[in-house]
C-alpha cells in the first residue's frame, strides 16, 4: 500500500511593512490682525456736566416765550372724556385717537352714557385704534368703577386714578395736570427721550425721568412743563433725526451728537 505522507500546512507569518507617514505640510502663518482704532466711547449722559439752575430756568423761559399756553393734543370735553382719551392713546397716536373719539364723545361723554353704549358698540367707534378690543373692555370697566366708587366723577388722586382699569401712572399724571391743574410730570416716549438726550433728567425708566424732572424744573414752569417737553420731542427732538438746527435750546443741550 502506498503511503502518502500527511500534509501539514504551515501558516506563514505575515509581516506588514510600516506605511511611511506623509510629511506634515507646514501651516501657513495667519496674517497678523491689524488692530483697528477703537471708536471713542460715547460720553455717558450721567457723566455729563449737570445743568445749572440758571440754565434750566433759561430753557423753560424760552419754551414759555415761544408757546405761552401749550395745549395737549388729545381732544376732550370734560375730565371723563380726557381720561378715556388718554387710556385709548396707549400705543396709538393722538391724531388717530381724536379721529375715533370725535364721534364717540358726541354720544358718550359721561360714565353712564358710556355704559349705556356698551362694549360691543364702543368697539365699532374705536376699531381704528390699536388694541381696540382690550381698550373697549377697559373703558367700560373704568366707567362702571367711576360710577360705583367715585359717584360718577373722575377721582382726583393719583392712586385712585391708577386703580381704574387701563389707567397707569402716566394716565393719572395727564388727567391730574390737564383736568385739575396739578403740577405733575407725565412721561411718555417723547419726554423720556428729551430728558435723557439733553441730559436734563437722565434715567433708565420713565419714573426715574419723571422724578428727575420734577426735582430740577422750577415750580413756576411745572403746570405746562410736560406739554413743552412733549411738543419739543414730537416736533423738534425727533427720535431718528433730531432737528438740532431749529432747536430752541441747542446751545444748552448736552447731547454729544447734536449737529450744531
TrEMBL record:
[4Fe-4S] cluster binds at residues 237, 244, 247, 253. It catalyses: 2'-deoxyribonucleotide-(2'-deoxyribose 5'-phosphate)-2'-deoxyribonucleotide-DNA = a 3'-end 2'-deoxyribonucleotide-(2,3-dehydro-2,3-deoxyribose 5'-phosphate)-DNA + a 5'-end 5'-phospho-2'-deoxyribonucleoside-DNA + H(+). Its cofactor is [4Fe-4S] cluster. InterPro entries: DNA_glycosylase, Endonuclease3_FeS-loop_motif, Endouclease-III_FeS-bd_BS, HhH-GPD_domain, HhH_base_excis_C, HhH_motif, Nth. GO terms for biological process: base-excision repair, AP site formation. Signal peptide: none annotated. This is Endonuclease III.
Amino acid at each position: 500500500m502506498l503511503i502518502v505522507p500527511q500534509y501539514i500546512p504551515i501558516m506563514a507569518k505575515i509581516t506588514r511593512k510600516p506605511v511611511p507617514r506623509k510629511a506634515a505640510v507646514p501651516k501657513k502663518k495667519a496674517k497678523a490682525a491689524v488692530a483697528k482704532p477703537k471708536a471713542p466711547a460715547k460720553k455717558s449722559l450721567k457723566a455729563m456736566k449737570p445743568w445749572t439752575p440758571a440754565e434750566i430756568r433759561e430753557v423753560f423761559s424760552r419754551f414759555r416765550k415761544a408757546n405761552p399756553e401749550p395745549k395737549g393734543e388729545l381732544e376732550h370735553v370734560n375730565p371723563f372724556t380726557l381720561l378715556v382719551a388718554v387710556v385709548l392713546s396707549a400705543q396709538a397716536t393722538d391724531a388717530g385717537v381724536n379721529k375715533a373719539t370725535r364721534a364717540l364723545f358726541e354720544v358718550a361723554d359721561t360714565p353712564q352714557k358710556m355704559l349705556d353704549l356698551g362694549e360691543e358698540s364702543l368697539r365699532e367707534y374705536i376699531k381704528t385704534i390699536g388694541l381696540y378690543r382690550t381698550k373697549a373692555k377697559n373703558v367700560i370697566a373704568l366707567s362702571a368703577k367711576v360710577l360705583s366708587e367715585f359717584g360718577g366723577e373722575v377721582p382726583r388722586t393719583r392712586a385712585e386714578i391708577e386703580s381704574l382699569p387701563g389707567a397707569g401712572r402716566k394716565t393719572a399724571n395727564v388727567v391730574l395736570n390737564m383736568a385739575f391743574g396739578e403740577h405733575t410730570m407725565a412721561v411718555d416716549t417723547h419726554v423720556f427721550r428729551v430728558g435723557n438726550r439733553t441730559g436734563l433728567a437722565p434715567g433708565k425708566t420713565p419714573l426715574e425721568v419723571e422724578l428727575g424732572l420734577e426735582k430740577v424744573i422750577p415750580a413756576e414752569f411745572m403746570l405746562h412743563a410736560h406739554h413743552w417737553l412733549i411738543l419739543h420731542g414730537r416736533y423738534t427732538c425727533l427720535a431718528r433725526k433730531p432737528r438740532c438746527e431749529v432747536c430752541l435750546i441747542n446751545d444748552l443741550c448736552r447731547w454729544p451728537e447734536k449737529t450744531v
